[in-house]
Structure formats: structure tokens, C-alpha cells
Write a structure and sequence with these properties.
The structure holds 2 protein chains of 2 kinds. By secondary structure, chain A is an alpha+beta fold. Chain A is about 30% helix and about 40% strand. Chain A has 2 domains: about 80 residues, ACT domain (Alpha-Beta Plaits), CATH 3.30.70; about 70 residues, ACT-like. Chain A, domain 2 (Alpha-Beta Plaits), CATH 3.30.70.1150. Chain B is globular. Chain B has a 6-stranded parallel beta sheet with strand order 3-2-4-5-7-6, sandwiched between helices. In chain B, strands 11-10-9-12-13-14 form a 6-stranded parallel beta sheet, with helices on both faces. In chain B, strands 16-15-17-18-20-19 form a 6-stranded parallel beta sheet, sandwiched between helices. Chain B has 3 domains: about 170 residues, Thiamin diphosphate (ThDP)-binding fold, Pyr/PP domains (Rossmann fold, 3-Layer(aba) Sandwich); about 160 residues, 3-Layer(aba) Sandwich (Rossmann fold); about 170 residues, 3-Layer(aba) Sandwich (Rossmann fold), CATH 3.40.50. In chain B, helix 15 packs across helix 16 and helix 15 crosses helix 22. By secondary structure, chain B is an alpha/beta fold. In chain B, helix 16 links the parallel strand 15 and strand 16. Chain B is built from 22 helices and 20 strands. The model of chain B has no long low-confidence stretch (mean pLDDT about 95). The chains are: A alpha+beta, B alpha/beta. The structure holds flavin-adenine dinucleotide and thiamine diphosphate.
């Protein structure tokens, strides 16, 4: 059982997302993260889903996804060289004084940017893979996280290969 | 300039539709108005569930897409069981539903229900039409999707204003092109060679054939292949009819209520050639012990079925007919596996299905009488339960598409309306619905429909005054605690008479054949109320979760 990143190319039509997510819940899969947006083809969208399961179960879910008429292609990025990123916005309690300085130091180590400065809080924006964002969240917890907003993972293959060329 | 309703009706006719089954209501008034003077035949059912089952029965008997129509909200919801039934058994139907006008969508308007949302998990695909200009194309796509690849139900939800709007009809594309839908029909050459080699190398091969053979109209190819190589065939409940019952290579049905010899052969085979089957748990019993010594070959048009429940050694994605034709063309002569065939013959001889003969009125006897009388030239539909299993076991089917039953969903109440649909597909054949007294009461209102249109469906009720199949489980596994499975007697003939249908009550075995003859000779519908032995069981039986050779109620080994 390990996380798999599935990249799903779909028709850009109403209801497609619920067809796709409905299939996951019906077959007993918990979606760890989900990201949807336009892609290189104007009338298609790409859905990236991270899901945990053993290889056989994942293969079955991919085959079932492929049966959806509006799904054009399903690829599992998990075993390929790839770049994966999430974006998180973290509102941290930061009273004036040492904690504020410490938070800014942590941010710079993580290459997070400070996108808002309030009297009692800072908002950090960080981009990275799941582990990096988890690590940052953990470090910031001691200062008090007021709000934590995070996108789903998106992924792309390294080099000139494209997701569409994957088997 | 045309209304959406007119475009709809013309599109159906372009697809070759002659008969549709439906029930009117507010938002489908424009469509019904168009049907009023159309040449499409519309059959008014008495409950929308029956419309869906009738479309399904039509499709199974004919191989063509069946069509049903209902209004929004309650009408559409009443179709759901029928759609789910068709989905589980891969039956091509197009379900048309009315919907509230587009400007009210999502407003909880009167009789609004999100039927595309509701049916998403039980349709192959569905559509909510938002623009009349899309209607012609969508109907064409729907028929294409329903009827090709692995068939299945498609629903089209049509808001009232889409039906009433008058437009200049745009041309409908000649060919349906869907980027996300390209079924594979031709098997991979190398895989086919591998399969042939695996079969040639085997000592004890068995063919396990299912609904996919019927759907693919490949019975002739199957029998040809099996005969040339001398391979015994067992069929699933859904595959019955793909080989004549009395063909020497036929071992009958396998699985929970299969024949002992079929289950023995599966357990001992060293090569299992699986054709258009889905390794259902009613078939495999405990999966680890199912064909445990066999190399498994599997032909299926749906890649998701291959390796789903059981590891497959030689997968072949493709249409059964196409793949079998390729195999036949590449076949090399090799000797028959005489020792194996002898063993199978021995099992068949010593472990036949039992038919009690103690003077009581036994359901097995009734089915055998029916079988002899009809000689395979009839369409037999069943309800669900013991009646279904006795028919599958004891009726001698000779042709594909003459056995129609709800296998995957096991929908009680399916049989009677499906039989009505089957009649419109094959008006040349007598149609019998074998029912239980429980199941028949799930859609008994359709007596109104068969009386109204004089649809000559013959209903044979195996009346045990029990929900028999459930009672059997209670007897065997719940210490005979018959919790809510006893049904008080019902005079079905009187009900039939009230609808203007003739019928006869049969209480002893001498009266069985005369009753069947009367039914067959009568022009219209007919009801037979057979008062059978109340606690008769279906045997043999594989208890849930056991290996399929561990059957109860069979012969000593
Ligand atoms: C009370 C009860 C008892 C039952 N007991 C038994 C029993 O004892 N034995 C038994 O066998 N069943 C039994 N069933 C039925 C069982 O539940 C399943 O419905 C049945 O076994 C499935 O049959 P199948 O494997 O042939 O698949 P089907 O459901 O008929 O599916 C057809 C398969 O063929 C494939 N296919 C479709 N078209 C093509 C094509 N053109 N080319 C290639 N492949 C194609 C499909 O993708 C699918 O995998 C029982 C049901 C009930 C209600
Ligand atoms: C709609 C529906 N409800 C419940 C069941 C569960 N069930 C399966 S068989 C059966 C009993 C069927 O009784 P009857 O129609 O009298 O047939 P018999 O088994 O006696 O031949 C029941 C309740 C079902 N299959 N379908």
C-alpha cells in the first residue's frame, strides 16, 4: 500500500468530476488529494488524484476510470521520474518579537514567501512536495497555526516525455 | 423547424426503434403529444419499473437496444431498479426521462430529481440535455454507447423546454466519435497463439462460457471450437443457451446451484478457457480453490473484468466472436483428450440433477414438462429465487437468447415485464415467465398491460407460499427459523380473471401437462398457479464461501 499519483485526462464537461470521484468512493478508495484544472488541450481538463492502495486495486480503479466515456486517458505517474508539487497557505500566529523572527527564518529555509503581514499573524506561501509541506507545517505548529489551506498534488514527468505518452 | 420532441422521435426511428415502453407525466407531455400520431409503437405499462424491464427483455431477446420512457421525479426514480438490473447483466437499453425545465433545474421544482446523479453508478453513461440542438447527436451517441463494446444502459434526461423548443435541426454527425470510448474487438494475435498453445498442452481443459458469448452472438463459433478440440463446456447462468443442453460436451451450469459434474470438472481441470464471463462469486465460491490447478485463459471485451477476481495467465481483450473466429482459423489438429472426456462422462452419468418422483407436485417436474412441450422453441424468462434455479437446471435450452433472467442484480419482479418486452422482440415464439409467488407480486400490476395489449405471455407461478429461496437458506443455515418468509395463499387465477386474463390452478402432477397445453394454445396471456411442494429445495448447492466441489444435496462421491 503506497500513494499513487494518477493523472486523468477528461473531457471538459459538466459532471465529469463527480463521475470520477464517485467511482473512487464507490470502490472504497479514499482520495488523499485532488487537483483539477485546464491543461494543454483547450477542451480537456486534467484531474490529478493521489490515492493509497495496493497495485492490484489501483490497476482495477484505473481500468474502471478508463471505462468512463468522458475519461480520455488515465496514467499512473508513481513509477516514473517526475516533479510533484503542492501549494500551501499557512496563517501563523506571530506576535512581534522573537517568534516572528524565527518564523521568518524558517520560511526562508523552506523558500516559503511571506505573502501577508498582520499585527498578530503572518501568512506563508510554500510550494513543494507533500513531505516538504508536512515538515513545514510541523515546525510551525509550535507558534500556533490559525489556518492551513493546501491544494492537491499536481505532477508532471521529467524530461521531454509527457504524461500522454505513458502507457 | 422542429420541436425537440419531434427531433427525439425521429432520432429514435433513425436508430430503428419500433417499440418503446413508457408511462406519461407532466414534463413528458410534449413527447407524448408527438407519439400520439407517430408510427412508433408505445406500450403503456402500469409501473415505470416494468418499462425498464420490458426494454431490457426486448434487448436480450433481440440483441438490439431497448427503449423506455418515463416522466421526471417519481417516474424516473421508478426506472432505477430496471436500469441497475440491465447494468449488472450488460444489457443495452436507452432510458429516456423527462426533467423540469432548464430554468428550474436545481430549484427543487415540482417532481424534480437529479436522475443523472442518481443513475451515475448504474449506467454506462448518461446525459442531461441542456440544448435542443444537441438532442439528435446525443440520441445517436446514446444508442452507440449502449449497444457497442460491453453493452449497458444509457439514460438521457430531457428538460421540458428542450422538448418544446422549436429549432432548425442541425445535421447529426454520420459517425459517432468519442475520444474516451474505443472498445477493442480484435484479440491480440500473440495472445491468441498463446491461448491455443495452452489449450493444446492441457490434459484436462474446460470451457467456462458466459453471458459474453450470448451478447457477442458467438454460440456457433463456440460450439464449433469445443467440438473440434473435444473440450467440455460449462456455462454460467447467463451463458445458458450458448450450447444446446443435450450436446454431449455440455456440462450445464456451474457454481452455487450448478451441476456436480461441472463443478468437479472446474476443480480438476488444468486449463480453464473462460469466455465472456466475470468470475462472479456465485460461480467461483471460494476463489482460491476455484480452478486451482488450471492455467486460466480469459477472453473479455472489458479489460476491467480480466484479473478482477482471479489471476489470469493468458488475457485476451476482445470480442468473443472475433477472437473465436481467429482461433478457429489458426487451429491445428490435435487428438481429443479421451481420458478426460471419459471422466467427465462418468461424472455426468453418476451425478445427474435430481428430479423427485414421489407423487407430489414438484417444480422440477413442471419445468421438465414445459421443456418437453416447448422443445427449446420458446423464450423462457424467470423471476428470481428457486423458480429461477429450477428453470436454469431443468429446462433444456437449445438456442441463445431464449433464456432471459436477472443474474447480477437478482431482481424479483423482473421476469414478467421482461417477458412482455421479449414478446415484442420475438413475436414468433411463445414466451413463458416462470415465477415464484413472491416475485410475481412485485410487478403483478402488469397483468393490466398484457390484458390491454393482448400480449401472450404465459405465467407459470411455482407457488410455494414462501419466499422460497430465502426460506431454503433459513432451513439450512438458520435452524429453520422462517422469519418473515411465509406468504399467505393468493388465488392468482382470480387476480388474472379480474384483469380479463384466463388461468388455471394446478394441484397435482397429472394436471401439469394439460395446463401447459392450454396455456400454449390460448391466444392471449395465461396464468398457471402451480401449488408445488412447499419446502422443496434447490440442490445441489454450494454453501456460501465453500469450495465449489463441496456441494450439499448431491450424490455420494
Ligand atoms: C438466486 C441466484 C442464484 C445464482 N446462482 C448462480 C449459479 O449457481 N451459477 C451461475 O453461473 N450464476 C448464478 N447466478 C448468477 C450470477 O449472480 C451472475 O449473474 C452470473 O454468474 C454472471 O454470469 P457471467 O459470468 O456469464 O457474466 P455476465 O454478467 O453475463 O457478463 C458478461 C461478461 O462478458 C463480457 N462481454 C460482454 N460482451 C462481450 C463480447 N462481445 N465479447 C467478449 N466479452 C463480452 C462482459 O464484459 C462480462 O465480463 C445466480 C443469480 C441469482 C439471482
Ligand atoms: C427485489 C428483491 N427483493 C428481495 C430479494 C431477495 N430474495 C431473493 S430470492 C427471494 C425469494 C423469492 O421468492 P419467490 O418469488 O416466491 O420465489 P421462490 O424462491 O419461492 O421460487 C428473495 C426475497 C430479491 N432478490 N429481489
Amino acid at each position: 500500500m503506497k500513494p499513487h499519483t494518477l493523472s486523468i485526462l477528461v473531457e471538459n464537461k459538466a459532471g465529469v468530476l463527480s463521475r470520477v470521484t464517485g467511482l473512487f468512493s464507490r470502490r472504497g478508495f479514499n482520495i488523499e488529494s485532488l487537483a483539477v484544472g485546464p491543461c494543454e488541450e483547450p477542451d480537456m481538463s486534467r484531474i490529478t488524484i493521489v490515492v493509497i492502495g495496493d497495485d492490484e486495486k489501483i490497476e482495477q480503479v484505473m481500468k474502471q476510470l478508463n471505462k468512463l466515456i468522458d475519461v480520455i486517458k488515465v496514467s499512473d505517474l508513481t513509477n516514473s521520474e517526475r516533479v510533484e508539487r503542492e501549494l500551501a497557505l499557512i496563517k501563523v500566529t506571530a506576535e512581534l518579537g522573537t517568534s516572528r523572527a524565527e518564523i521568518m527564518q524558517i520560511a526562508s529555509i523552506f523558500r516559503a514567501s511571506i505573502v501577508d503581514v498582520g499585527a498578530k499573524s503572518l501568512i506563508l506561501q510554500v510550494i513543494g512536495d507533500t513531505d516538504k509541506i508536512d515538515a513545514l507545517e510541523k515546525l510551525l505548529r509550535q507558534y500556533g497555526i490559525k489556518e492551513f489551506v493546501r491544494t492537491g498534488t499536481i505532477g508532471i514527468l521529467r524530461g521531454s516525455k509527457t504524461v500522454s505518452s505513458l502507457k | 423547424m422542429k420541436t425537440g420532441a419531434k427531433i427525439l422521435v425521429e432520432s429514435l426511428q433513425r436508430e430503428g426503434v419500433k417499440t418503446i415502453f413508457g408511462y406519461p407525466g407532466g414534463v413528458v407531455l410534449p413527447i407524448y403529444d408527438e407519439l400520439y400520431d407517430s408510427s412508433l409503437q408505445h406500450i403503456l405499462v402500469r409501473h415505470e419499473q416494468a418499462a425498464a424491464h420490458a426494454a431490457d427483455g426486448y434487448a436480450r431477446a433481440s440483441g438490439h437496444v431497448g427503449v423506455c420512457l418515463a416522466t421526471s421525479g417519481p417516474g424516473a426514480c421508478n426506472l432505477v431498479t430496471g436500469i441497475a438490473t440491465a447494468y449488472m447483466d450488460s444489457v443495452p437499453i436507452v432510458a429516456l426521462t423527462g426533467q423540469v425545465p432548464t430554468n428550474l433545474l436545481g430549484n427543487d421544482a415540482f417532481q424534480e430529481s437529479d436522475i443523472t446523479g442518481i443513475t451515475m453508478p448504474v449506467t454506462k453513461h448518461n446525459y442531461l440535455v441542456k440544448d435542443t440542438a444537441d438532442l439528435g447527436r446525443i440520441v445517436k451517441e446514446a444508442f452507440y454507447i449502449a449497444g457497442t463494446g460491453r453493452p449497458g444502459p444509457v439514460l438521457i434526461d430531457i428538460p421540458k423546454d428542450v422538448s418544446t423548443k422549436v429549432i432548425n435541426e442541425p445535421p447529426v454527425p454520420e459517425k459517432v466519435i468519442l475520444r474516451g470510448y474505443n472498445p477493442t474487438y480484435h484479440g491480440h494475435k500473440r495472445q491468441i497463439e498463446k491461448a491455443l498453445q495452452t489449450i493444446a498442452d492441457a490434459e484436462r481443459p474446460v470451457i467456462y462460457a458466459g453471458g459474453g458469448v450470448i451478447i457477442s452472438n458467438a454460440s456457433a463459433e463456440l460450439v464449433d471450437f469445443a467440438t473440434q478440440l473435444g473440450i467440455p463446456i460449462t456455462t454460467t447462468l447467463m451463458g445458458i443457451g450458448c450450447i444446446p443442453c443435450d450436446h454431449p460436451l455440455n456440462m450445464g451450469m456451474l457454481g452455487m446451484h450448478g451441476t456436480e459434474y461441472a463443478n468437479f470438472a472446474i476443480t480438476e481441470c488444468d486449463c480453464l478457457f473462460s469466455i465472456g464471463v466475470r468470475f462472479d462469486d456465485r460461480v467461483t465460491g471460494k476463489t482460491d480453490t476455484f480452478a486451482a490447478h488450471a492455467k486460466i485463459i480469459h477472453i473479455d471485451i472489458d479489460p476491467a473484468e480480466i484479473g478482477k477476481n482471479k489471476h489470469v495467465d493468458v488475457p485476451i481483450v476482445g470480442d468473443v466472436k472475433s477472437v473465436l473466429r481467429d482461433m478457429l482459423s489458426m487451429l491445428k489438429k490435435n487428438g481429443l483428450k479421451e481420458a478426460w472426456l471419459k471422466k467427465v462422462r462418468h461424472w455426468k452419468q453418476h451425478h445427474p440433477l435430481k428430479c423427485p418422483s414421489d407423487g407430489g407436485l414438484h417444480p422440477q417436474y413442471i419445468i421438465r414438462q414445459m421443456s418437453e412441450l416447448l422443445n427449446g422453441d420458446a423464450i423462457i424468462v424467470s423471476e428470481v429465487g428457486q423458480n429461477q434455479m429450477w428453470t436454469a437446471q431443468h429446462f433444456c435450452f437449445r438456442h441463445p437468447r431464449t433464456w432471459i433472467t436477472s443474474g447480477g442484480l437478482g431482481t424479483m419482479g423482473y421476469g414478467f415485464p421482461a417477458a412482455m418486452g421479449a414478446h415484442f422482440a420475438r413475436p414468433d415464439l411463445p414466451v413463458f415467465d416462470v415465477a415464484g409467488d413472491g416475485s410475481i407480486q412485485m410487478n403483478i400490476q402488469e397483468m393490466g398491460t398484457v390484458a390491454h395489449y393482448k400480449i401472450p405471455v404465459k405465467i407459470a407461478i411455482l407457488n410455494n407460499m414462501f419466499l422460497g429461496m430465502v426460506r431454503q437458506w433459513q432451513e439450512l443455515f438458520y435452524d429453520r427459523r422462517y422469519s418473515f418468509t411465509e406468504l399467505p395463499p393468493v388465488e392468482f387465477v382470480k387476480i388474472a380473471n379480474a384483469y380479463g386474463i384466463e388461468g388455471v390452478k394446478v394441484e397435482c402432477s397429472e394436471d401439469v401437462l394439460p395446463a401447459l397445453r392450454t396455456a400454449l394454445d390460448c391466444d392471449g396471456p395465461f396464468v398457471m398457479d402451480f401449488r408445488i411442494e412447499r419446502e422443496e429445495n434447490v440442490f445441489p448447492m454450494v454453501p456460501a464461501g465453500a469450495a465449489i466441489n463441496e456441494m450439499i444435496g448431491g450424490h455420494p462421491r
